[in-house]
Amino acid sequence: MNPKVDFYFNKNKNWQEEVERLRLIALDCGLVEELKWGCPCYTHQENNIVLIHDFKEYCAFLFFKGALLSDPNHILIQQTANVQAARQIRFTNIIEILDQEATLKAYIHEAIEVEKAGLKVELKKTTEFKVAAEFQHKLDSIPALKKAFEALTPGRQRAYLLHFSSPKQSQTRTSRVDKCIPQILNGKGLND
Asked: What is the pTM of this model?
């Protein structure tokens, strides 16, 4: 147990018993406990394997390369359509965790083997993401914007593309594009 992570388990009122049990399961699999993104993260040879996080309705194990796991029990959940690699196993009470403890350990051991084998999730290329018509119009009419956007890292490009294409109304898409143009021109990502 890493003392730097203890605060997470001490602050967690809604899911305290559940996340403490998840912690013991991860540690029992020989993983190293670290604090990443404000959450307990469990690694094997410095590779991220699984993370514990909690939400209002549930707590979860998040497998970083969950898309590569065999999932014989069909318990892995893709959080949103845009999540490519990670998968969650969600829990709403301690009984679910206790009942699935052997299964959870098996999933963790498989995730460790995925890392040992050096397997990678085949991510969609940035060119495969939808470009909102409103953003495409700006790219076509402002050469400096196109150049600045192409200079961004693929992850920053994808974040903008998802941000611009998600609203249903054209007016909202246009507003988002207009608001982000200065940031793109300054070489910044959506959340920079």
From this structure: 0.75
